[in-house]
């Protein structure tokens, strides 16, 4: 029943994602440390943006700030966890995001993303 719907959804997967997460690793001398590991690479997906509002600040300088929600659509069997770092390549541009809690459905899953930026 869901197979046909899933095929239709996956036709829109024109982007690619690499998913990384921190995992504990034991060193040869018995110390535990956290390292970042790639758990999925080159996963077909769809990155979607939706504007959620425009706010204007009237201080010494006028600043227009557009806020938007970024959502990743990916196959339901892809293991995505909250806090994963996801690098998405869309139209030749790669940006990094941090995953929120995924919502898994029979045909796909949706993950709200937050842009990862260096200060």
Pick out its properties.
6-stranded antiparallel barrel, 62% strand, globular, single chain, 119 residues, mainly beta
Structural summary, described in words:
- With 119 residues, the protein is mostly beta strands.
- The chain contains one helix and seven strands.
- The chain has one helix spanning 2-10; strands spanning 15-26, 32-58, 62-74, 85-90, 93-99, 103-104, 109-115.
- The protein has a six-stranded antiparallel barrel.
- A hairpin with a 3-residue loop joins β2 and β3.
- The longest helix has 9 residues, at 2-10.
- The protein is globular and about 50 Å long.
- It starts with a helix and ends with a strand.
Sequence-ordered SSE layout with sheet pairings:
Elements: H1 2-10, E1 15-26, E2 32-58, E3 62-74, E4 85-90, E5 93-99, E6 103-104, E7 109-115
Antiparallel strand pairs: 1-2, 1-4, 2-3, 3-7, 4-5, 5-7, 6-7
